Amino acid sequence: MQDIYRGIFPIVPTPFHDDGSLDLDGQRRVIDCMIDQGIDGLCILANYSEQFLLSDSEREILQAVCLEHTNGRTPVIATCSHFSTQIAVERCQNAEKQGASMVMMMAPYHGALLKASDEGVYQHFEALANAIDIPIMIQDAPLSGVTLPVSLLARIAKDFTNVSYFKIETPGTAEKLKALLGAAKDYIDGPFDGEEGITLLSDLEAGATGTMTSALACEKIRPIVFDYLNGHRDKAEDQYQRLLPLINLENRQCGLRACKVIMKQGGVIKSDAVRHPLEPLPELARKKLLKLSKDLDLIALRWGK
Question: How is 10-27 classified by DSSP, letter by letter?
Fold first, then answer.
């Protein structure tokens, strides 16, 4: 029987050298730092890993490095999304062979106009479910531009046993999570949210049992999740209120750059570079980020010192 995953499965950032090349030693240090934050698992090659700025060969290198270095210390979810069903299947099979505990997939899309129909989405996940044995998480995110109705997600969950995890991060996440669980609760092992935890309390109230944030403040977010799940809701809310200014800053102004800035400051990585056309974090946001992180005494801010 497969383990049922819950808790915090943060996104692993991809460190680069100042010239934009992969920093593989830094990647290993990032994983060690995240594990020291007390996470329940990791997610690699996701959007906050800058997956859309990586070549295919770089993806293969990073997946191998991350899985080898993690070495079973914590479960690893590998993001394998692609518009092509054939390529997505190959990516998923490779991730399973290399030791991934789960794969995460967005609905097939390419740009604003190339999107699969509902039936095409269903067939895409049917092919993936038939190709591998490990669990599959559907990532329902605005970035794809694909609308995934609750009825379609419930149908997929009911028809394919290993499509049992759902990361919902659309507008109105809590209501969609609640509706999905109402339609297919017995077929869902992991209702998760994302978006840096910006709607975490509402999503937990709706039935979420896990979250996929960045690697910025995992040790602060994990107790919120488990205090809530264990019935200590006032305690969870108090902790969330203290953390919310940082979450809001990350979600609304910093994005994936926040984690890199803090990890560089904390000696985890040598550079907080992002790949063009992404731009460095503006100085005003950087100063606010550093202040809030210092006030919260984040592990990532002092891990390498």
Answer: PBPP--B-TTS-B-HHHH
